[in-house]
Amino acid sequence: MPILETDNLAVRFGGLAAVSDFTISLDDGELVGLIGPNGAGKTTVFNVLTGVYQPSAGSVTFAGEQLCSAGRGLQPYQITLRGVARTFQNIRLFKELSVLDNVKVAYHQNVKYSLPPAFLHTGQYIREETEIEQKARDFLRIFNLEGKMAERAKNLPYGEQRRLEVARALATNPRLLLLDEPAAGMNPQETKQLMDLILFIRDRFKLTILLIEHDMSLVMGVCERIYVLDYGKIIAHGTPAEIRRDPKVVEAYLGEAM
Amino acid sequence: MQQLINGISLGSVYALIALGYTMVYGIIRLINFAHGEVFMVGAFAGFFAITEFGLSFWPALAAAMVFCALLGMLMERLAYKPLRNAHRVAALMTAVGLSMLLMNGAIAIDWIGASPKGFPQVIEIKKFRLMENVVVSTDQILTLAVALFLMMLLQFIVHRTMMGKAMRAVSQDKDAARLMGINVDKTISFTFALGSALAAAAGVLFALNYGVVMFNMGMMPGLKAFVSAVLGGIGIIPGAMVGGMLLGVTETAVSAAGYSMLRDAIAFVFLILILLVRPAGLFGKNVREKV
Amino acid sequence: MAKRLCLLLLKAAAILVPAYLLQMLIDSRSINPYYAHVMIVMSIFVILSVSLNLVVGITGQFSLGHAGFMAIGAYAAAILTKNPGLVLPDFITGYPLFILATLAGGILAAAAGLLVGLPTLRLRGDYLAIATLGFGEIVRILLLNWPFVGGASGYFGIQRFTSFFWAFLFAAVTVLLIRNFINSSHGRACISIREDEIAAETMGIPTTRYKVIAFVIGAFFAGIAGSLMAHLNRMLIPASFSFMLSVEVLLMVVLGGLGSISGSIGASVFLTFASEALRQFRELRVIVYALLLIAIMLFRPKGLLGNQELSLSLLKKASLTAVARFRRRQKDAASTTPAD
Description:
Radius of gyration of chain A: 19 Å
Number of helices of chain A: 10
Number of strands of chain A: 12
Helix content of chain A: 25-40%
Strand content of chain A: 25-35%
Largest sheet of chain B: 2 strands, antiparallel
Strand order of the largest sheet of chain B: 1-4
Radius of gyration of chain B: 19 Å
Shape of chain A: globular
Number of strands of chain B: 4
Structural class of chain B: mainly alpha
Largest interface: B-C, 43 and 43 residues
Oligomer: heterotrimer
Number of helices of chain B: 11
């Protein structure tokens, strides 16, 4: 059974159709790429999948539950709680918070204590906070960030900020992870590390990944299937080898390095 | 009917102030809290132009508008420009600080002071009887005429001139506008000048209608004008006009119905209602922040 | 468990003992009554600025209505203590009545906060500023027109309950509770909203709910501060809860640093003291405040102290870096001199 399905999704801003007839289906555990020229509507798709925008038409079904349909849908935080996490094209960390606290925010959904224990720091508060602290530390260790736990997020080097953003998204315990241009601004060396990281988290956390990327070496290197978007429409779909040969894709990318 | 006329006259003053709010918000997404104080300064500038320099109504109105246009540009340059890329709360606080500074600075200046001053009757007040119980006076006609003229002028500037095109471009996307060779700083500065001049005109007209000027006269009309702008859809110029009229008419209707003490509360009830029902305003489209 | 109890008792003693000792000094006139009054006002402003900091500094929502919530708390509590038996049973008198009335004032202010916050906090940013400003003005206008509380001429004959002891106690408890809140997962949720609302939402934080929670907590403590003020001055006039008061509290928050509780406390003490010293220059004072507010925003937009907490560990860190820098400089000097 597919974990994520979109059915003829469309998003219009005023008269402009940013995305139309967008139908995709992702199986559990797949690693799928979404590529296309700038302005093709890739990030708009992510914004609909995570509830930031409402679709003008069509619907999104995740794990058998409808997340949104024309003009209405769940709030972004509700979608996160159902198991969809994402990163952003332009990194959106909590800059003034420590690396550890960035991850702790993601654990908020598991917190059971209510407001009075928060005010009074009761036993329940202490138990749960110790647990969160431990979990967050262990989690950062997986991503080789344990040495930077007390650092403010804004003081991390760029590559580590990206890594922290991925870690933070994973800490919400998703079944589907959406990565929006994770390799943007990285050098080939860092991109190589990122590819290893993506494959590693897919296997370790047993999740489905949909990623937007311009770096073709990364997309072709890790994705099992690829959807190509141009002017808001899917123009091609298939394995990396098929996509590479597809004349429509070559045309859409004409002039851009492929 | 009589109330409708009074309401429209008051509403056109709100609309003029609201235009400044809405333009500034449209272009740099800032609620310029000091805008009500610009209105007050405009009224005083008109007052001094008449009493000290002996000008008649029209030159005084023009002088007040020019003075406030300069004041608006100065405020933008000194206080808001350095904060253009800072956190929004910082810019809002600066606006609050400027508002306090202008209001209390006015008290500290000897010839303004804390007590109200009578605004001279510079135009001859005639009353025209339209119907049985309906009277319209020259100052009301003048207010409406000047307001309408300025609004049409504004529409012309925004839609028919190069500067207006630049303003619309900057409000859409500052960076793209800059890449297209538009001088963004100059455009923002011009927007402040335009908005402030309109507020000054509103100030002089308001003073003419009510016959007094006072240091804190900008506060309430300023707030209400902002509500008018929200009502019509902030950032939308015709919206500000309609919002202002709507608020003016409702207010006069409420005080005519005998609840004059609640008059000042109406605006905020409007605000809460519109935020509940249609947060983008009557003419607005709901747009979410770009991610 | 026993250890925690000990710690709790120790904390209670750390608040109660100095409060009690200072109160004794005041009662015996070793501290003159004027200074005692200023100290009480300082405590009240600590409550106001720390609670506003939760809204503005921690959660990043710009509220201008603190004076309005304070007014609601003040009038509600004063009505209750002036009319025993009106709402509460009339066998409750004296300090129990005062405390109950103060809490009731806080709860009513919190309810008003919920009413204003729910429609406005759903939206992004700026509307809250204007809505709270308008709300504060409505409260003032309604009080002016309410004969039961004396309208514009004021509400008189309120009993004096607020001693330094009580003001200090309420302030200390407020600071502790809000600090605890900030250091909880719920507090982190609020901070994440300030840092990046969209990212917070994709982390599963119901942002609107947390903005409302922070706003309502802020309103509650403003109401408490209002009651303390009412039972200190023994009279209330609507004009004293003007927009200016909100701005004054805001200035304390900004001066002390957005998000810094210790900063707010320091700034409240300093500004209360300063405005007492500048009492005869009222207009000038406001102008200085306005200039100060603008200058801080232009040159240090995060507030004078930023969001750092003043604490022992910070002092330690600062002194360590200073020592390290000094050592390095010495080493540099030692290594460069021979080369010269």
